[in-house]
Amino acid sequence: MASQCLGSKCLTATLTLALAAALSASTALSLYLWRRKWRGLESQIRELEKSLKSSLEKCSAERQGRIRAQQELRKALALPKSDSLFSYPMAPIGIIQSCFSTRNGTPRQPLLVPLARAGLIFDSSRVPPASLEGLGEYSHCWIIYVFHLNTNLDKLWKEPSRSKFKAKVRVPRLKGGRMGVFATRSPHRPCPIGLTVARVEAVKGSMVLLSGVDLVDGTPVLDVKPYLPYCDAIEGAAVPKWVKEDSLLEVASVSFSEGFPSTLADCWVRAEKKSLYASPEEFQSLIKQVLSWDIRSLSQRNRPHDYSIEKRNGKALVKNTSDSLTQEKNTCDSDGCQDEEASIPISGQVSLSSGDNIIYHLNLEGLDVSYRIDCKGNVIVEKIAMSSDISNSH
């Protein structure tokens, strides 16, 4: 009996100890879990405090920025009004290295000549190569640039009130008909800024290789933006009827003289190193694409045979003999009208052969291409020579 009582007490003590141990372990586990949860909460609280502090600092900076802007605006409004008050000086971020050496022959619109190539070379001091990362994943890009060859740029920027920009321009598709400058893409604008689209062929360091360009060599570039089809291509966009006359400036055919390939091969030996093209055959294809459109000026197309040779100081000069053309131009200028096409000296585009046939000139990558165009719109490319050789001979 005594032994049974002793065993019962031992069992009770054992159970008590086990229960105490279990409670102690449970308490320890609960304490551990609570501390762990508390540490997590502390971390979240610190993150929230950091985020709140950052937001407060940002709001404070924005508030200070608004205050400074308001102060600057008040100061500006207190100053006498001047032309420079609302000017925004911008410096180019890059330069175009194009196959088009001069304005003559440069396409009037982008993508008309798929083989027209150019390299956009960025100023590495302003545009680090990292800023071009990702551009190569787009097929096309927008390019904002300056019409730097306009003859009135100095007057336009230095004395804008006296620049007298023309409200209307003569449009090639309207055969000289006039249209408001903002209804056209004329380079002669109050702010001579151009917008074009080009195909992105490759991005190499600080240079972007482009194709389908309508940019002349040396064009200053202000900005580049990716082309986004979902918002840039507007389905069902309406344009005037005269814009749809695509065939108006197309030529009937383009052919080359029998000796042209051999002449091109001779020139290619000197031009190959600096060329954007891999072979003379590819360069000849470029010439054909460019001349598939009538690149002559409006006055040349309207009066292609009103030229004579005038000798001055022993040199033969090409002269326009149409008095009516001069009268028309003067009348147009007095009415505030200007030719949409860039004004290019005739002597740089036209010469006369011994048979009084008009020979036109196209300059691509420093190579002078001579061609004729008959009354039916057939282009015959006569020959090609280095522009430097022609200048030296003259």
Q: Tell the overall outline.
A: elongated
Strand content: 15-25%
The H-level CATH homologous superfamily of the domain at 243-394, spelled out, is RelE-like
Helix content: 25-40%
Question: What is the string of SSEs from the N terminus onward?
Answer: HEEEHEEEEEHEHHHEEHEEEEEH
Main beta sheet: strand number and arrangement?
Answer: 6 strands, antiparallel, barrel
- Total strands: the figure is 16
InterPro entries: TrmO-like_N, YaeB-like, YaeB-like_sf, YaeB_N_sf
Protein name: Nef-associated protein 1
Keywords: S-adenosyl-L-methionine
Domain TsaA-like: 90-236
What would you say this structure looks like, in words?
The chain is an alpha+beta fold. Among the domains are: 110 residues, Elongation Factor Tu (Ef-tu), domain 3, CATH 2.40.30.70; 152 residues, YaeB-like fold. 34% of the residues lie in helices and 24% in strands. It has 8 helices and 16 strands. It has a 6-stranded antiparallel barrel. The longest helix is centred in the first third of the chain and has 77 residues. The protein starts with a helix and ends with a helix. The relative contact order is 0.12. About 9% of the residues have low confidence.
